[in-house]
Amino acid sequence: MPRRAIIALVHQLPALLTVAGEPEWPQRRGPDGNGIAVCGKWNPAALSGTPDIGWKAQVGSGYT
What we know:
This protein is mostly helical. The protein has a domain at about 5-45. It has one helix spanning about 5-15. It is extended and about 55 Å long. It starts with a helix and ends in a 47-residue tail after the last helix.
C-alpha cells in the first residue's frame, strides 16, 4: 500500500470509528470546546445516596 494511501486512511479513522447516532467530538474538550458533554440520557437521581464501593485500598502519600 502506498504511503499516501496509508496516511489518508489514518486521517479517516476517527470518522470511520464514529458510532451512528452518537455526538461527534472533533476537538479536545468537546464539540464546543467548553468541556461540557450534552446528553439527554443522564439521571441525576442516580447520584443521590451513598455510592456503592467496588474496592478499597490503603496507599501511602503521593505527589501530583
